Amino acid sequence: MTGTKASLPQTTATSGFMPSETAAGAILTIDLGAIRENYRRLKARLAGVRCAGVLKADGYGLGAARVASALMKEGCEIFFVALLGEGIALRKALGPGHEIFVLNGLPPGSEPEAIATGLHPVINSTAQLRAWREAALAAGRKLPAAVQVDSGMSRLGMPTADVEALAADAFGGIDIRLVMSHLACADEPLRFVGRIAR
After folding, report:
1. Based on C-alpha coordinates, what's the Rg of the chain?
2. CA distances from residue 36 to 33, 43, 98, 105, 175 in whole angstroms, order as listed
């Protein structure tokens, strides 16, 4: 979309007042063709490995549904959002058939809503792991999830020692789709990846 005005404060948008381009100070141009081209280039470098789209914060303000639709035209089938509410909105926009992972995991007690909307948590803690296992037991089936490991950034993810200690059997009931890390530290490889029980 070309010539889209930068997002204005809520009060301005709801009051009906629209400042001039000069008063706004900026114009945001969204080129979905460029987004698609970037995805094609990245996918070409991955030699058959699946590539995901990250659409946190409404696609970083570009419109998550709009960007996801463009990426789907290039074959993207996996999407990440930060929060459960973002995932629910994206699921409504996309419909079934695409994997949507919630990067921050699920708020306690929201597991049934995630299951009902077909969202997959990124498990970042032993508490999230326990809650998702209990949800799988209640659902009577394995539930998809990703496991995030903190490999040095100290932002999100389970400590490597916790994952190694739990790897033998604590992931029972969970269909692990991905094991991931945010900015993995080169001197601490993810040596446990092959040992997680499915």
Report:
1. 19
2. 5, 10, 17, 28, 30
- Within 21-168, strands assigned E span 52-54, 78-81, 99-102, 119-123, 143-150, 158-159
Q: What gap in Å lies between CA 102 and CA 80, rounded to an integer?
A: 6
Number of domains in the chain: 1
61 in a structural domain = no
DSSP code of 100?
A: E
Torsion of CA 194, 195, 196, 198, to 10 degrees: 80
Per-residue pLDDT tens listing for the chain (198 residues): 444 444 444 444 445 677 777 887 877 788 999 999 999 999 999 888 888 999 999 988 889 999 999 999 999 999 999 999 999 999 999 999 899 999 999 999 999 999 999 999 999 888 898 899 999 999 999 999 998 887 665 667 666 666 666 665 666 788 889 887 776 555 544 444 444 443
The residue type at 36? R
List the domain range (segments joined by +) for residue 133: 104-198
CB 60 within 8 A of CB 26: no
